[in-house]
Amino acid sequence: MGALLSLPLLAVPSVGTLMSFGASCCGAAACSAICNQCGIFKSSMATRIAYAFLLLINSIISWLMLTPWALKKLEHLTLDYVNISCQGKQCYGYVAVQRVNFALGLFHLILSILLLGVKSSRDGRAALQNGYWGPKVIVWLAFVVLTFFIPETFFQVWGQYIALAGAMLFVLLGLILLVDLAHTWAEYCLEKIEEHDSRGWRVLLIGSTLGMFTASFAMTIIMYIFFAQSGCAMNQAAITVNLIVLLIITAVSVHPTVQEYNPKAGLAQAAMVSIYCTYLTMSAVSMEPDDRSCNPLIRARGTRTASIVLGAIVTMLTIAYTTTRAATQGIALNGNSSHTYNKLGDEDGEHGLVDQQPTSRREMRAEALRAAVEAGSLPANALDDSDDDDDDSDDGRGGKDDERGGTQYNYALFHVIFLLATTWVATLLTQNIDYEATGVAAVGRTYWASWVKIVSSWVCYAIYSWSLLAPVVMPGRFGN
Q: Of 49, 111, 342, 471, which one has the greatest count of Cβ atoms within 10 A?
């Protein structure tokens, strides 16, 4: 574990051998200490951050294994006494990246199966999600080691077909959640304005809308100035199409027919979709290769190694954040709610009276609360308050469990999305590998990655447009 934790430090040329040795020696001890202190996370946010950090570390290790650079550094740490190889072949390149990400994907797949149906932290299986961090890290590392005993032909098929399909699904899911976020944000602001006639919320909604539109047009102007010179047909087409579609979806969002069937649709949603799609387009043209002299950013960079390292780490951080947000927001897709209250006597033939002796004082209190809620004497959230009281008494370490009454997100879906994220990382890293490279590899600097971002922006526009037009085309299905 210590050697793996020291790999990111090897990417910075200014860090010497002593610091790498220190990280290797202290890595295992540090992880053990942290895991012992954390135990079972009582906060769902802490759990999500931990999984995001694990994905980040896995992604950085995958990136470093693209070329022999990192492995040569590790061999140098052993004073060149150890020759790192896998079944007589070098442990880097396409197959090595697929192995590492397959290991983490398998880890999340197993957890998703084990955590199916967990509704609250009262379920004993919830500890698998929020605790056992030491054993889970060991299992992850064991999977990484075991993948190097699997024949390369398996990972060639896996990477070319299964991982590619998973990566596309991950990108599509992210776009759907982005459109959902745009609608949720605008509708939430409108609800606050209607309920409280709040000037602050009105200023926030209008200001954020104007700000996002302004940023979108500013990025478009910058792209035309720096990335759309003569001979850069691809960039010119991508930027122009983005601008035209931006104007179209803005006009559609305020069209009288759309407003009639969906009164909450408006410029706020269009602004959020526009700035995201414009950002995707700008990211695409700024990360493409410079073989046609269409990317001045590559030529303008000073220290090439430092810029590549920074770009790769920022990319991995973005993927980790996006995955965590998508995994927790994904609960909106299946319509589940953590807090549901069932009325007494809903079942046929039931009289709604308590006919069994409670087995504990806590159950007696819960039965009394349910009866009071049913009678209208207490609000429904009194059941949550009861859970909170139990949390305070049950947690001897002074922590507060925020999932006793219900999970904040779907555990199984959370791990499925992380599984898809590992396929996206593997696909992103292994497209158009430069097998002659000996230094650190640039991430996403391929025409394939650029076109994925450009097409993703078009798909995002299409999804948002359909969310506006669907109530008009199928009014009966949407209840209007």
A: 111
Return the residue matching tokens 């202290």: 26
pLDDT class of 370 with cuts at 50, 70, 90: confident
Integer Cα distance of 454 and 314 in angstroms: 20
Cα separation, 442 vs 290, whole angstroms? 13
Q: Is the pLDDT reported for residue 401 higher than 90? A: no
CA 45 to mean position of chain CA atoms: 14
pTM comes to 0.71
- According to the model, what pLDDT value does residue 225 have? 92
Give the span between the Cα atoms of 29 and 422, in whole angstroms: 27
Q: How far apart are CA 426 and CA 421, in angstroms?
A: 9
Q: Which residue has the higher pLDDT, 382 or 276?
A: 276
Residue pLDDT, tens place only, 264-320: 888 999 999 999 999 999 988 888 887 778 878 766 654 455 656 666 677 777 777
Question: Is residue 384 within 8 Å of 87, Cβ to Cβ?
Answer: no
Beta bridge partners of 86: 89
What's the pLDDT at 352? 47
Give dist(CA 247, CA 270) in Å, integer: 9
Mean pLDDT of the chain: 76
